[in-house]
Design a protein that fits this description.
Elements lengths: L42 E6 L8 E7 L7 E11 L1 H8 L2 H6 L9 E9 L11 E4 L2 E2 L5 H4 L10 E2 L11 E5 L3 E3 L6 H4 L2 H14 L5 E5 L3 H12 L4 E5 L3 H9 L4 E3 L6 H7 L6 E6 L4 H10 E9 L11 H6 L4 E4 L7 H12 L8 E6 L3 H10 L4 E5 L2
Parallel strand pairs: 10-11, 10-13, 11-12, 13-14, 14-15, 16-17
Antiparallel strand pairs: 1-2, 3-4, 3-8, 3-17, 4-5, 5-9, 6-7
Helix pairs in contact: 5-6, 5-11, 8-9
């Protein structure tokens, strides 16, 4: 992995008023889930953003978080490494301006409920669960009108508060998602990015329509199999990496294109009555890919944008949106909790193919190798075995 020049940390940003942060003081050992499990230690292993620069550190004596009355303490089994974690690892401009030094990172996981607060009623110790990583107090306008995924007071697990790259994590009861026994652990550990793909595909209404996916990273690849399962008439995809293009074909894409090559937009039009794709799912955040994707979108088409550019971009609004009459959707996170029900239904239907995407499992002690696999492109989705 090539060295990365650290970006100076920005001034501390204000923390939005929202859900209370769990305490992390040492606690007396308590009994784990029923069944004779051993008592829990007062400390745990956790991956911490230990300084304002590249990398993470394994802290072997982090205090176990203490659940509040409406919180759930979860023992983490597997945790997924995602693009946000890579930003934090590399300490790019976004991470330096957003991530508090000392935080436990990570937000994708599967685990078992260890302990619940006194006011928790919906989950019990011993349940296998995942969780929605966007946490809100459910008080603002968006939360109260069905759009909690874009609430003003949202705090993100592993970004604004301690996350799941640890033996234990605390989340509010409302965010806990009990898992169907038909969903295996390695899939349950990556429901967060799968939810991004499902939200994007479902928002765009792909059934019986031609779909172009620009960028087949982890979520773009998931979008290929989700779009196919959701009834897309044709799925086309682009990526610079030939390995990812090949995997997109394996997951159900009808054709893939190298966006650096000539003539591929004309090929998309040739496959779509000469008009262009009905739907664009932009997953890359690349300025060039965004421009090309809108060029390949038909007049009156729908574009759903999930990819996040690393900096502001120049965009031909006149020709790509106004004169084209395009519908443009900004996609953020997962709809809480409509997307989770859709994910569960799709997974249990057997129509999603995710096993080829989850390529590596590493021990948490070998976390540096996990990040290297992801950054090099050798790994697609890497999950860590935490406990």
């Amino acid at each position: 992995m090539s060295p990365i020049t650290p970006v100076p940390a920005a001034a501390a940003r204000p923390v939005p008023a929202g859900p209370a942060m769990p305490e992390t003081r040492p606690v007396e050992s308590v009994q784990s889930a029923p069944g004779g499990a051993p008592s829990r230690s007062r400390t745990m292993r956790a991956l911490v953003k230990h300084h304002a620069g590249p990398g993470l550190r394994l802290d072997a004596a982090r205090p176990v978080p203490v659940p509040g009355p409406r919180d759930v303490l979860i023992r983490v089994r597997l945790a997924g490494i995602c693009g946000t974690d890579r930003h934090i690892w590399e300490w790019d401009q976004w991470a330096a301006s957003r991530i508090p030094v000392g935080i436990v990172t990570g937000h994708e996981f599967v685990g078992v409920v260890e302990e619940v607060g006194s006011a928790v009623r919906r989950v019990t110790p011993g349940q296998r669960v995942s969780a929605e990583g966007h946490i809100t107090a459910w008080n603002d306008y968006n939360s109260r009108t069905g759009n909690a995924h874009i609430a003003r007071d949202t705090m993100i697990l592993g970004v604004d508060r301690d996350g799941c790259f640890a033996e234990y994590v605390v989340v509010p009861e409302e965010n806990v998602w009990p898992l169907h026994p038909g969903i295996p652990d390695h899939v349950a550990a990556v429901l967060d990015p799968l939810g991004n793909a499902v939200h994007t595909v479902m928002a765009a209404g792909v059934s019986a329509r031609s779909v172009l996916i620009t960028g087949t990273g982890i979520i773009g690849l998931m979008a290929v199999t989700v779009a196919r399962a959701a009834g897309a008439a044709q799925v086309l995809a682009t990526d610079l990496d030939p390995r990812r293009r090949a995997l997109a074909l394996e997951l159900g894409a009808d054709e893939v294109f190298d966006p650096a090559g000539p003539g591929w937009i004309e090929q998309v039009r040739a496959r779509t009555r000469g008009d262009g794709a009905d739907v664009l799912l932009e997953m890359s955040g690349s300025s060039a890919a965004i421009d090309q994707g809108f060029s390949a979108l038909r007049m009156g088409g729908t574009a759903a944008l999930l990819g996040i550019p690393s900096r502001p971009i120049t965009f031909d609004l006149n020709n790509h949106v106004i004169f084209k009459g395009a519908t443009v959707l900004g996609i953020n996170g997962r709809r809480m909790f409509e997307t989770w029900y859709q994910m569960e239904s799709l997974l249990l239907s057997g129509r999603l193919r995710l096993d080829p995407i989850v390529t590596h499992r590493v021990a948490m002690s070998d976390f540096a190798r996990g990040f290297e696999l992801m950054i090099s492109g050798e790994g697609i989705k890497v999950v860590m075995e935490v406990s």
